[in-house]
Specification:
Layout lengths: L2 H7 L4 H10 L4 H8 L3 H10 L7 H18 L5 H26 L2 H4 L1 H5 L15 H13 L3 H12 L2 E6 L5 H16 L3 E5 L2 H19 L8 E2 L5 E6 L11 E5 L7 H11 L7 E5 L7 H7 L1 H4 L14 H4 L3 E2 L4 E6 L1 H6 L7 H7 L2 H8 L13 H6 L1 E2 L1 H4 L15 E7 L7 E7 L8 E9 L4 H14 L1 E8 L4 H11 L4 E3 L3 H16 L3 E4 L3 H8 L2 E4 L6 E4 L10 H10 L19
Parallel strand pairs: 1-6, 1-8, 2-4, 2-5, 5-6, 9-15, 10-13, 12-15, 13-14
Antiparallel strand pairs: 3-4, 7-8, 10-11, 11-12, 16-17
Helix pairs in contact: 2-3, 3-4, 5-6, 9-11, 9-12, 11-12, 22-23, 24-26, 25-26
Length: about 600
Amino acid sequence: MDTQTLIAELDLDPRRLARALYWQGWRVARIAEHVGVKAATVHSWKRRDAWDDSDPADRIASTIETRMQQLILKEDKEGKDFKEIDLLGRQVERLARVGKYSQTGKESDLNPNLANRNAKPKRQPERNPITDEHQAQLVAAFLDGMFDYQKHWYRAGQQERIRDILKSRQIGATYYFAHEALITALETGRNQIFLSASKAQAFQFRSYICDFVKDVTGVELKGEVIKLPNGAELSFLGTNSRTAQGRHGDLYVDEYFWIPRFLELRKLASGMASQKMYRQTYFSTPSAMSHEGFKVWTGEHFNRGRPKAEHIKLDVSHQALAGGVRGPDGRWRQIVTIIDALAGGCDLFDIDQLRLEYSPEEFLQLFMCQFIDDGASVFSFAALQRAMVDAWAEWDDFKPFAARPFGHRPVWLGYDPSHTGDSAALVVLAPPAVPGGKFRILERAQFKGMDFAKQADFIRQQTQRYNVEYIGIDTSGLGTGVYQLVKQFRPDAVAISYSVEVKTRLVLKALDVINSGRLAFDASHNDIAAAFLSIKKTSTPSGRGVTFAAGRSEETSHADLAWATMHALAHEPLEGATSTNTSFMEIF
């Protein structure tokens, strides 16, 4: 039986029957004939009851109501009747939710499950979920990946409270100690604290740890302070982190021979590891004999304030410390040169090639753990230390990982091109915002084996990242080719042609800036300080005058960063910004 027949047979109010037929699509004339009234009457009902204004939900609800009443009043119900009643009841409930949604606009009114999804407290996903299986994998990878000299460090770490290691460059010390600290934290639950000259340098530990865990287990560690499942925390701090005073744990101090005011820092840092269960590890490449850490290394600092009978005298030669020795001051010392690293299985170096690339003096300092006698240097190590800052903490306007790290503020570029056998150097220098203010070295880069076209292209890339106001280029050697290419996209590039007078002017300007405390660079860039320290006075070929030399020949390239910096500083007159060499324009 179809719906029309059903409705027709029902003894309904003609007005309701007419409405039902109208909503089914009947014409008014046909409705009037079917119901038995005049067409004008149906038109009147339609207008008064606003049949056209009702929405589809109201029309369906009315039809369902009519059908349900018929089924409910039926005396002899069949199974299909009960099913239809149940179905229509669910439709009534659904229509009620639609009606409520039309008033509130809440999706949970349409779907009650949405309201219940937050009824129970959510279980937060576990952060840094390193399992026992992951830990076993990390320990195995750590032990399998050590060179022999690193195994020696590992054994000393099991027995010694204080390890003090003087090391060659690039032998994987930071990499090793990052992994060692992670394994120690997992196995013992002790906190691990990494302290470096700058936060950028400290975060190198974090990078090594995160990469190690990701490569071995697939787990991605999160957090500036890494919290492990056993409660241990790995903290990465710069030297200006006064919050470090509230921390405790095993301590790692990286490149401590380059940290300014080291004794002050040592007093603060050692307090974090004062409990007997914690150990301290200091490791660094050598800097200058005038550094405060040198006296700690030689034992002289231990003697201060003690009776003469308790004074110690240590043999800190390589022969005495190559195997690692615990001194009477309780510090375990070791010297690891690049030759020791090679003998210990580190085959990453070509020693003969390095001897060609660096002068004998520089090779001894960089790779054979010999300290610099800065008494012969033109630049004072103490003054250079004052220039070393924690850039991440102090320079809010510099974002090193942004597309434009310094925004639209002006910078000066100093470039020292590569000569046959040495490296090229670029320095990005931020000039002072006010006369007499500080110059800041934002970036530095060194490149080896690049022809002059590639060197020029690198300069072009920097002009796209920074608002470059000045470019100073040494035009000797390959510098002429670099300068000509740079002139094509930066006609304002300045050529610096070397002579005794020019070199003297560059050095005097740098001395004035550094000694007056007007230069700043990130403390992790100790290669900048080393470059300035390598510049010494020397006689001119005639023997009648004095000039300055370092890193200007094929055998050495260690001073290229210093010369690049001086090329940028040369844009400010030797006397600085004065009323006679500066001007301003006022627009009305």
